[in-house]
């Protein structure tokens, strides 16, 4: 993955509730995330976004420009290339398996390119009007034996390849690219949001043994399953933290801003013994004076929050079961996103999903401020980690594009590369 011209890496996470920009500088520490040190941080309230999709490009442009400008001022640098996360466009996940004959010789770059090209062509044929967002390696097998992570230099008769292909709707993806273009930003790579979050929050043992990552965002809840060192499935539930806020605003007749504040300061997904007696002040929308404030028991607030959180987690559970990967997903789940900060969500998730649950925070990315080292910023930090742990994907995509050249000069160039 190419660095910027000043040796910096810029991560841009455009979500439904916030826009976050991290500027990082690689360090030779050998740690996760490429030993990245964050030297610039900017974040703004997201405008013009809904469910990860651009709905007002002028408002969204203002928010993105503000976040990038903040980060540039802090880093005292200017950026042009960005790694960009994407959580809209109703992503669809599919595993593609191909097998190619290698006639018993040593497996080399040419064999990998041929297998990659076959898998990528199959993915394009099955995309059905969608755009391929990410092509993620999910393992190799030689002569029917799985588990090979690096087949180069091995011998066998048949080389098998499994690719995890994530596609998205064309319109939302193109609108996001247009937004970046209007902000004078070049996209180095687009990364599906839960994959980026997993890059920064999961540990190696979890990725190997099987884990479900649940990104509780504002407009959507994204799900990713990791197993045997790779992401093997991703899905999306069209419910997020904003739905909880809207439920509170409607149920208590207050503004969305006050509903968000109530959720953050007093909300919980699990009822407590003192909730009936703890009173909460709620300003009524459109009223002023003595009648503007109402006092309600905290149990009433929790009674609004709890059903929506339960519905979201049950949808996640049902989607996992429908995918056929419930067992592969393992007995562990990691919660990220701003919704993971809501009191009681971890305990509720453990009960609904019947898994061991922890809250995931960015790992291996240095220099984060206290306000930005929580689960709400996992995707932005994961984009920096992608430079290190996602480098194989970038190489694979380059190999695929090279292997898909159909012209005479492309074939001639490949022949010279392979034989000289």
Quick summary:
This protein is α+β, with helices and mostly antiparallel strands and 420 residues long. The protein is built from twelve helices and 18 strands.
Task: Summarize the SSE layout with pairings.
Blueprint: E1 9-14, E2 18-26, E3 36-45, E4 49-50, E5 53-54, H1 57-75, E6 81-86, E7 92-101, H2 109-126, E8 130-142, E9 145-148, E10 158-169, H3 170-182, E11 186-192, H4 193-201, H5 204-209, E12 211-216, E13 221-227, E14 230-237, H6 241-252, H7 256-266, E15 279-283, E16 293-297, H8 298-323, E17 332-336, H9 345-353, E18 356-359, H10 378-389, H11 391-403, H12 408-419
Parallel strand pairs: 1-6, 6-11, 12-17, 17-18
Antiparallel strand pairs: 1-2, 2-3, 4-5, 7-10, 8-9, 8-10, 12-13, 13-14, 15-16
Helix pairs in contact: 1-3, 2-11, 4-10, 6-7, 6-8, 8-9
Largest sheet geometry: 5 strands, mixed
CATH class of one domain: Alpha Beta
Structural class: alpha+beta
Give the fraction of residues assigned to helices. Answer: 25-40%
Level-2 CATH architecture of one domain: 2-Layer Sandwich
Radius of gyration: 23 Å
Would you give an account of this structure?
The protein has 420 residues and is of the alpha+beta class. Among the domains are: 92-170, Dna Ligase, domain 1, CATH 3.30.1490.110; 204-361, ATPase, nucleotide binding domain (Nucleotidyltransferase, domain 5). 38% of the residues lie in helices and 29% in strands. It has 12 helices and 18 strands. It has helices at 57-75, 109-126, 170-182, 193-201, 204-209, 241-252, 256-266, 298-323, 345-353, 378-389, 391-403, 408-419, and strands at residues 9-14, 18-26, 36-45, 49-50, 53-54, 81-86, 92-101, 130-142, 145-148, 158-169, 186-192, 211-216, 221-227, 230-237, 279-283, 293-297, 332-336, 356-359. The strands form 5 sheets. It has a 5-stranded mixed sheet, sandwiched between helices. Strands 14-13-12-17-18 form a 5-stranded mixed sheet, with helices on both faces. Helix 1 crosses helix 3, helix 2 packs across helix 11 and helix 8 runs parallel beside helix 9 (345-353). It is globular, with a radius of gyration of 23 Å. The model is unreliable at 30-34, 391-401, 403-412 and 414-420 (pLDDT under 50).
